[in-house]
Write a structure and sequence with these properties.
Elements: E1 33-34, E2 42-43, H1 46-72, E3 97-100, E4 105-108, H2 109-112, H3 140-152, H4 156-168, H5 177-189, H6 193-205, H7 213-225, H8 229-241, H9 245-257, H10 261-272, H11 278-295, H12 298-315
Antiparallel strand pairs: 1-2, 3-4
Length: 317
């Protein structure tokens, strides 16, 4: 069987599944299995798959790469769900949201810093979680206990945050890179894209592990497909440095739609330098404006302004 026949191998003239290697048809006692890489052909067993590999390899790799890119360049869902209080899209910047270990909710800063009232409409002075009304932790120990309880119930963000604690040796946890990687791997498998981004960055810089560019890219891709915009921008940067301008642009466009401002600036530069069209830049601008309109609220603007004032006073300027 020649390589040109591979695209139709696995089907006979009567549209009945057959093994691409031996031509044996599918029976109740012998269910054929697809090639997991390309999904184009079927085999009786692993022996038939290995025997057919020399003829199938080229087409298989080509189709597998196409399937991978289809998945990689698909706009992913947002990394975080909408704020459970105001129901607006969650900002991607860490300054725009806060994780509450008391109830496991990610809440936008607009709702976090908005006044909280009791059932009689009286303003509550003591800071409490705006979702579950639990008082803020009064000590690092109490905060740790809450975090560990959320980890025990497989809260993916809590697992990720605990990994950060081990990476940085903070909140009373001893610094342990291996433990951090273990927790991030678990959080990533549960569906938290940022966990894979942290693993990718760890391999990229060789923090506690041997530097491994291939592993870094793999985890960046997993993170990007999970909605992490930083990982997506990192992939764009890697493609740009490799001279793959079109692939880089695709990554930046996806990152912009998810609110990554720096990717918009890069696309602007690409347009000025002739590496992106006017339509590309216009589309990027519109995508970013759509994102801003989805996250905007008066409460969030007030919270951002208050945070800016606090940072100004703390800087001592």
């Amino acid at each position: 069987m020649t390589s040109t026949e591979d695209t139709t191998a696995g089907k006979d003239d009567n549209d009945v599944s057959v093994c691409a290697n031996c031509g044996k048809g599918e029976e109740e006692s012998n269910k054929l299995k697809h090639c997991n890489a390309c999904m184009m052909v079927k085999y009786c067993n692993r022996e038939c798959q290995i025997a057919h590999r020399p003829q199938h390899k080229k087409e298989c790799r080509k189709r597998a790469a196409e399937l991978h890119d289809e998945k990689l360049f698909k706009q992913p869902p947002p990394l975080h769900e909408d704020c459970p209080i105001c129901f607006l899209r969650m900002p991607i910047l860490e300054t725009g949201n806060k994780y509450m270990a008391c109830c496991g909710k990610m809440i936008c800063t607009g709702c976090v810093y908005a006044p909280v009232y009791d059932n009689q409409g009286n303003k509550i002075i003591e800071r409490k979680c705006p979702f579950c009304r639990a008082p803020y932790p009064k000590s690092i120990k109490e905060e740790n206990e809450r975090l560990k309880k959320r980890v025990e119930v497989n809260d993916l963000i809590a697992i990720y945050n605990l990994g950060v604690c081990y990476r940085d040796g903070m909140l009373g946890f001893a610094q342990n890179n291996n433990k951090a990687l273990e927790l991030w791997q678990k959080a990533g498998e549960l569906g938290y894209g940022s966990a894979y981004n942290s693993i990718g960055y760890t391999y990229s810089i060789g923090r506690g592990v041997e530097r491994d560019k291939k592993k870094a890219v793999y985890y960046y891709e997993q993170a990007a497909m999970g909605g992490d915009t930083v990982a997506r921008a990192n992939l764009g940067n890697d493609e740009w440095r490799a001279g793959n301008k079109e692939r880089a642009l695709k990554h930046y466009m996806i990152a912009v739609r998810d609110g990554h401002e720096n990717s918009l600036k890069i696309i602007q530069t690409m347009y000025f330098n002739g590496h992106a069209t006017k339509d590309d830049y216009t589309k990027a601008l519109r995508s970013y404006q759509e994102y801003l309109s989805e996250i905007k609220s008066k409460q969030r603007d007030e919270a951002a302004a208050a945070d800016a004032r606090l940072r100004y006073y703390e800087s001592g300027v």
